[in-house]
């Protein structure tokens, strides 16, 4: 039974820390993913769900599903219910452009999203959060935009269906319907709430505190009038690494208050670092 | 001698409270404007400055100057220096559309701005903060936009030079160069800083905390590429009521770090309420 406010699931765990900016494990360096599922309040992606994907798409599930790289979810079953009834959904994933080129870890959500797009034949929006990286990494606006453009080339190379894919940079696209949804979300989230979810302090600049609504609103189809205007409020499925869960716990808390479906999530473990554990 | 960080001037005064959301005086209901000038750290607009306006514009100073309705300023002398040297400046004022029509108090900055535009022949930007009122007054996005449009009609009726005036609603205009400047400002302002200036608490929603950069950036000409692109970083003069000073103390603190002039201010007292003091 899902609690009403998922943002309450988050309690500080001293032995492992996982949030959008920091992933650190206890001794040995291994993340305890079962504990993370408990802590975040998401669900394990079990074999019966993988079998259902197999049946619905009539193709073998992606190796990242079979091998448990994507291991957790929120409401993925609802997405499959909707799909089975012929209702539409869309995919949303993103990239914070902090470096020149994508490495293998960065590619995991994109490779998996490409499979989901092919298997379910659905639209996809890809958010390049150049504003986020400008704010967190102390990059200039211009450098963040340059990295977003470089990263877009690597993302395009994954082979998405160009007739169903919209890639945008926040610096280019924020405004209009997107900005209106940002304001609607911001009104629903107190400073105490974001401090609880993300651990902000008084020394953090207000750009960081302003950012969560920006990552939230691609979950709402009305943020993309040129894609979804006139469509019947399609559901949103977000493939991502599990460190992004805090943003979407917040988003799921707000969505029904604004008349939207909660976005569903399908979440991966982290790519193992190329280092020797002794 | 101006202190480096003007935002430090603000100390809580228990006997009178003046900020963008609240104006309340001690017993008797009269604001002590001399005390306010000390508290905010701005300057009194004295007769020699008014005489200088007379000389420079070759026309009688506006009655709001002669009668002390506009009574305080920050760097207004620098604007006059620039004007005397033939350098450009522009005017920026605004309106938070919280009601259907403007009353006499609301009209004061617009009537005075119209005089400044006529006297100095300068461009003017007018910001309609429909996003602010949506966030503070619990209006819907649609209702805030409707009020902005209604208010724009009253503002236009003041008779601005249409070839030199740009009126915009935040919901329409935020994005692009404007949004980039919002992010640049937000990076320079900590949560502690805005809490000190505006008195936010943990129960305030993050829309309020995100807003100060939106009111700040019309002070920077690069926020309006269609007006000022290629122009030589013109100075900005802001006519407003003195309750808006906190926004621009923050803006003036940030401006030099981003390579802009500090905006200058010319500030009015409050329109007396139509009530009997006993």
TrEMBL record, chains A, B:
Record keywords, A-Z: Aminoacyl-tRNA synthetase, ATP-binding, Cytoplasm, Ligase, Nucleotide-binding, Protein biosynthesis
Pfam family, one: tRNA-synt_1b
Predominant cellular place of this UniProt entry's protein: cytoplasm
Domain of life: Eukaryota
Any GO BP: reproductive structure development
InterPro entries given in the database record: aa-tRNA-synth_I_CS (IPR001412), aa-tRNA-synth_Ic (IPR002305), Rossmann-like_a/b/a_fold (IPR014729), Trp-tRNA-ligase (IPR002306)
Molecular function (Gene Ontology), one example: ATP binding
GO CC terms: cytoplasm
E.C. number(s) listed in UniProt: 6.1.1.2
Compartments, record wording: Cytoplasm
Family note: Belongs to the class-I aminoacyl-tRNA synthetase family.
Name under which the protein is recorded: Tryptophan--tRNA ligase, cytoplasmic
Organism expressing this protein natively: Cannabis sativa
């Amino acid at each position: 039974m899902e609690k009403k406010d998922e943002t309450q699931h988050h309690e500080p765990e001293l032995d492992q820390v996982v949030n959008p900016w920091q992933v650190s494990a206890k001794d040995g360096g291994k993340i305890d993913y079962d504990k993370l599922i408990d802590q975040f309040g998401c669900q394990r992606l079990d074999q019966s769900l993988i079998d259902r994907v197999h049946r619905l798409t009539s193709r073998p599930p992606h190796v990242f599903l079979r091998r448990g790289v994507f291991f957790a979810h929120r409401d993925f079953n609802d997405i499959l219910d909707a799909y089975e009834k012929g209702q539409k959904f869309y995919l949303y994933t993103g990239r914070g452009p902090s470096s020149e080129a994508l490495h293998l870890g960065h590619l995991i959500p994109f490779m998996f999203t490409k499979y989901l797009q092919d298997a379910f034949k659905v639209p996809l929006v890809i958010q390049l959060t150049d504003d986020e990286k400008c704010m967190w990494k102390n990059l200039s606006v211009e450098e963040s935009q340059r990295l977003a453009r470089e990263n877009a080339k690597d993302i395009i190379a994954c082979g998405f269906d160009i007739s169903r894919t919209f890639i945008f940079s926040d610096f280019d696209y924020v405004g209009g319907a997107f900005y209106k949804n940002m304001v609607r979300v911001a009104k629903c989230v107190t400073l105490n709430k974001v401090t609880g979810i993300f651990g902000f302090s008084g020394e953090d600049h207000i750009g960081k505190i302003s950012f969560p609504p920006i990552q939230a609103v691609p979950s709402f189809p009305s943020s993309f009038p040129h894609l979804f205007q006139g469509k019947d409020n399609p559901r949103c499925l977000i493939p991502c690494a599990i460190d992004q869960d805090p943003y979407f716990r917040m988003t799921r808390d707000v969505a029904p208050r604004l008349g939207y479906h909660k976005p569903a999530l399908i979440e991966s473990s982290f790519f193992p670092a190329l280092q020797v554990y002794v």
